[in-house]
Design brief:
By secondary structure, the protein is α/β, with parallel strands linked by helices. Helices cover about 45% and strands about 15% of the residues. It contains nine helices and six strands. It has helices at about 25-45, 70-80, 90-100, 125-135, 155-165, 185-190, 190-195, 225-255, 280-295, and strands at about 5-10, 50-55, 60-65, 110-115, 140-145, 170-175. Strands 3-2-1-4-5-6 form a six-stranded mixed beta sheet, sandwiched between helices. The longest helix is centred in the last third of the chain and has 35 residues, at about 225-255. It is elongated and about 105 Å long. It starts with a strand and ends with a helix.
Length: about 300
C-alpha cells in the first residue's frame, strides 16, 4: 500500500445493535477496524489512521490521525456507550475530509473508509454533489455496506456516490451480506485491503489468484493467509527496490572515483628538476632567448 492517511468512519447508529453479525454489528466493525489498522500500518509504518463515528446526536472525531493502535481502541470503547440515533453519512465524510486536510505529512494519500450498516437518510443528489467535491480534493472513499437492510435504497445511493468519486478504481464499494463468516475475514479478501490487483466480485470478494502473482491461490479460502502473503510480497518488493537503489548508488560512486583530475598522473618534478606544470623551464628558455637577442644587437 502507498503512504496514506486514513480516516475510518464507524456506524454507531441504533442499527449497529443488530445481532445478524455476532455478537453485534458494532462489535463486528470494531474487529474489522483492528484488522484495517494492522494492514495499513504494517504495509507502510509512516501511514496514519484516525477514527470517527457518524451515529448518535451527530458525527464525532474519536481519534485524530495516529500510528498508535491504543488510541483507536480507546475511541471504540468510548463510543460503544453512545450507540443511538441514525447515521449522518454526508456530514461524517465532510468532517473526515477536514481531519485529513490537517494531516502533518502532506505527502500521504488521503483516504476515507466508511462502515454503513443502517439506512442512509441523505438524498442521492446531495451525496453525488459531495462525491464530486471529494474527487476534486483527491480523496479516495471506500464503503463497507454490511448487514441485512430492509431495502436496496441505501446501496443505490452508495453506488451513485462511488461511481462519481472513483478515479482509476481507487475507491470501492464492498457489499457484505450476513453469513456465518466474520466481517473482518470477508473484508480481508476485498480490494479495500488487497489493493488494486484484487478483482472485485459479488459482495466485494476477490477472485482466485487476486494479487498473488504466480500463486494459484484463492484468498477467500483462507483470509488470514491471504493477508500474510500480501504483506510478505510487499516487504520483498520493498527490499528489492532498496537493494537496486543501493546498487545504483554504488555504481555511480565507482564511476566518479575512476575520473582523474587534470594533471593527476603528472610527476612532481620534471627532467630539469623543476616543479612540473609550473612553466619554470619555459620561462627560463624565454629569458635565455632574450639575452641572446641582446648580445647580437
Amino acid at each position: 500500500m502507498p503512504l496514506q492517511a486514513v480516516m475510518i468512519i464507524v456506524d454507531n447508529s441504533e442499527s449497529s445493535r443488530n445481532g445478524d453479525y455476532q455478537p453485534s454489528r458494532f462489535d463486528a466493525q470494531a474487529d474489522a477496524i483492528n484488522i484495517i489498522f494492522e494492514s495499513i500500518t504494517q504495509s507502510n509504518p509512516e501511514s496514519s489512521v484516525g477514527l470517527m463515528s457518524m451515529g448518535g446526536k451527530g458525527p464525532e472525531v474519536l481519534s485524530t490521525l495516529t500510528t498508535e493502535r491504543g488510541k483507536l481502541l480507546e475511541g471504540l470503547h468510548r463510543i460503544r456507550k453512545k450507540i443511538s440515533g441514525s447515521a449522518h453519512l454526508a456530514t461524517g465524510i465532510q468532517i473526515a475530509s477536514l481531519a485529513l486536510k490537517h494531516r502533518q505529512n502532506k505527502s500521504q494519500r488521503q483516504r476515507i473508509i466508511a462502515f454503513v450498516c443502517s439506512p442512509v437518510a441523505d438524498d442521492e443528489k446531495k451525496l453525488v454533489s459531495l462525491a464530486k467535491k471529494m474527487k476534486k480534493g483527491n480523496i479516495d472513499i471506500d464503503f463497507v455496506l454490511f448487514g441485512d437492510l430492509e431495502d436496496d435504497d441505501t446501496q443505490k445511493k452508495l453506488e451513485a456516490f462511488n461511481n462519481t468519486v472513483k478515479t482509476n478504481e481507487n475507491s470501492h464499494l464492498v457489499v457484505i451480506p450476513p453469513s456465518g463468516k466474520l466481517l473482518s475475514d470477508q473484508l480481508i479478501t476485498t480490494p479495500i485491503l488487497l489493493g488494486e490487483g484484487a478483482a472485485s466480485g459479488a459482495g466485494g470478494v476477490a477472485e482466485g489468484g487476486g494479487d498473488f502473482g504466480d500463486f494459484d491461490f484463492d484468498p477467500s479460502a483462507d483470509p488470514e493467509l491471504a493477508l500474510a502473503l500480501r504483506m510478505s510480497m510487499e516487504e520483498e518488493n520493498a527490499r528489492q527496490a532498496k537493494a537496486a537503489k543501493e546498487q545504483e548508488e554504488a555504481a555511480k560512486k565507482t564511476s566518479l572515483e575512476g575520473i582523474q583530475e587534470e594533471g593527476e598522473n603528472q610527476p612532481l618534478l620534471n627532467e630539469q628538476g623543476e616543479p612540473s606544470g609550473s612553466g619554470s623551464a619555459e620561462k627560463k628558455d624565454d629569458k635565455k632567448g632574450d639575452d641572446d637577442k641582446m648580445d647580437t644587437s
